[in-house]
Amino acid sequence: TDNDGCVTSSETEVVSTPDPVATASAYILYYSAQFTNTGTGDSYYWDFGDGTTSTDENPLHAYTWTNDTLIYYTVTMVAINACGTDTNTFEVGVGDGVEGEVLGVDELTSDNQVSVYPNPSNGLFNISFVNVSNEEVAVQVYDIQGKEVMTRNYGVVSGNQNEDLNIENVSAGIYFMNVQIGEQIQVLKLIVE
């Protein structure tokens, strides 16, 4: 209160930025790994343990094919924001016949199903989306070295939908299809004869 009896007050809005958290999950299919950021940060740095790096938030990485049953790589993830950095290091195993989750990947739920047929094929595949609930759907196809050979956004899908996927222009071999429905990801193996 001042000499005139007036009361002065002020408000300050405090905006809190949480510390970054480097946590991740991965889905491995042979020599490819779809890493999913499950932490917080404004930017990210990944070291895949094989001499390559990425700054993508959710990178797809193809390790070099070695014809081994199982090889382990030490992956380092760094989450960065104005409050600092957080680092997490974990191991992933890749190789012939390796398929599955590492660190609790958020796979497609049982309500959202994706199937591809015929597989193997000459490069012309049918994709069937079942029980999709108004979600954005996108597909990327990568060769065994991790080079993107095709990407397609199907837009918002609701219910059941069948789509053609044509990669007849590629060489015979193994390819990986990364299907994203909303925030969920599934990696499927495609064989082109």
Walk me through this protein's architecture:
- There is one protein chain.
- The protein is mostly beta strands.
- It is built from no helices and 13 strands.
- Strands 9, 10, 11, 12 and 13 form a 5-stranded antiparallel beta sheet that branches. Strands 5-2-1-8 form a 4-stranded antiparallel beta sheet, with no helix packed on it.
- A hairpin with a 2-residue loop joins β1 and β2 (32-37).
Radius of gyration: 22 Å
Helix/strand order, N-terminal first: EEEEEEEEEEEEE
Query: How many β-strands, per DSSP?
Result: 13
Number of helices: 0
Averaging pLDDT over every residue, what do you get? 80
Mass-distribution shape: elongated
Structural class: mainly beta
Stretches where pLDDT is under 50 for at least 5 consecutive residues are 103-111
Biggest sheet, open or closed, and with what strands and sense?
5 strands, antiparallel
Comma- or semicolon-separated keywords:
single chain; mainly beta; 57% strand; elongated
